[in-house]
TrEMBL record:
It comes from the Bacteria. HAMAP family: Ribosomal_uL18_B. Gene3D superfamilies: 3.30.420.100. It comes from Chryseobacterium vrystaatense. GO terms for biological process: translation. This is Large ribosomal subunit protein uL18. Part of the 50S ribosomal subunit; part of the 5S rRNA/L5/L18/L25 subcomplex. Contacts the 5S and 23S rRNAs. The gene is rplR. Belongs to the universal ribosomal protein uL18 family. The keyword RNA-binding applies. InterPro entries: Ribosomal_L18, Ribosomal_uL18_bac-type, Ribosomal_uL18_bac/plant/anim.
Length: 117
């Protein structure tokens, strides 16, 4: 029987997470998107802590416009918080989502904000 959309995403997520990992020097930028919102966080996998987070639900993020424009704003917000915390270099984790649309817009926003990956 065919896998559901969620099962496929989880399978891809496990495969990618086996290859990448975050540390305090090189944290992992994890992206999660729901139908309405988008969330991003920088994670130190060695200590199991979240260093910085941003989402479209926060007051500091401009939530006007299309979902793609909001995603770019979230990317810029997480980049600003990361640079304030002294983080410039990261590893990108698309969390099993296709690198297209909102996920790509978030990544481009983070690059514009000054993060390197």
């Amino acid at each position: 029987m065919a896998l559901s959309k969620l099962e496929k995403r989880i399978r891809i997520k496990r495969r990618v997470r086996g290859k990448i990992s975050g540390s305090s020097e090189l944290p992992r930028l994890s992206v999660y998107k729901s139908n309405k919102e988008i969330y991003a966080q920088l994670i130190d996998d060695k200590n199991g802590t979240t260093l910085v987070s941003a989402s479209s639900r926060e007051k500091g993020v401009d939530a006007n416009g299309t979902k793609t424009e909001v995603s770019a704003a979230v990317g810029k917000a997480i980049a600003a918080k990361a640079i304030a915390a002294g983080i410039e270099q990261i590893v990108f984790d698309r969390n099993g989502f296709v690198y297209h649309g909102r996920v790509k817009a978030l990544a481009d926003g983070a690059r514009e904000g000054g993060l390197k990956f």
